Amino acid sequence: MSFRIFIAMLVVSAMACTPSPTTNSEKSELQQTNLYDYNVESKLSDLGISLKDPKPYNGLPIEHYVLVDNMLYLSGKGPVTEDGERITGKLGKDLDIEQGREAARRIAISQLEVIKSVTGDLNKVVQVVKVLGMVNATEDFTDHPKVINGFSELMIDAFEDRGRHARSAVGMASLPSGIACEIEMIVEIRK
Predict the structure, then answer these.
(1) Where do the structural domains in the chain lie, given as residue ranges?
(2) 35: which residues sit within 8 A by CB, 6+ positions away?
(3) Fold category of 35-189 in CATH
(4) What is the value of pTM for the model shown?
């Protein structure tokens, strides 16, 4: 075998092993692939949940969120009723676990409203990544995770496996305005 034929065979072999670059149309096709085989908002509607525009952040120079690349960092939110009233009280004294779970669920709805306002479409949520739940609780209350389950369960109901997340649920001696709990989260989104 001549040296030229050997070199030609090496070049052809190397070209066969090198992945071809992705074209713009292939990238676009990948981006169009649906993350869900259902519509997240329709699923929420089936659960009796309708989303509204998030309320302004009390005129403070901070936002509900910060978006860095495809990671959405959501500020902590407290629970409010459908009428906009804060849900206040201390778990283990003023509120029981079920009332705490409902408060956490109400926060989940508020956070979904923020996510929708940023993305325009909840079907762009790639993954709920991290949740920090803070519970306004008495010193002897120890069921913080059961309270924050109200939030986590709604995320999983909405996004299924993409709603499963790392989570911390901790007790606090007090929270702003006496709210029952406060929850912040990190979400990966598709732009």
Answers:
(1) 35-189
(2) 123, 124, 125, 126, 162, 190
(3) 60s Ribosomal Protein L30; Chain: A; (3.30.1330)
(4) 0.81
Q: How far apart, in Å, are the Cα atoms of 121 and each of 27, 71, 157, 171?
A: 20, 15, 17, 33
Helix count and strand count (H, E) for the chain? 5, 5
Collapsing DSSP to helix, strand or coil, 124 comes out as helix
pLDDT at 36 over 60: yes
- Packing angle, helices 97-119 and 144-159, rounded to 10: 40
Give the mean pLDDT of 10-27: 47
The encoded tokens of residue 23 equal 């074209």
User: If you average pLDDT over every residue of the chain, what do you get?
Assistant: 87
Q: Which of 142, 130, 139, 138 is nearest to 168 (CA)?
A: 130
User: Mean pLDDT, to the nearest integer, of 24-49?
Assistant: 78
Please give the Cα distance from 52 to 32 (Å, whole number).
Answer: 26
Who wins on pLDDT, 58 or 14? Answer: 58
Distance CA 45, CA 130 (A): 24
Show Cβ contacts of residue 134 under 8 Å, excluding neighbours closer than 6 positions: 76, 170, 171, 172, 175, 181, 182, 183
The H or E element spanning position 141 is none
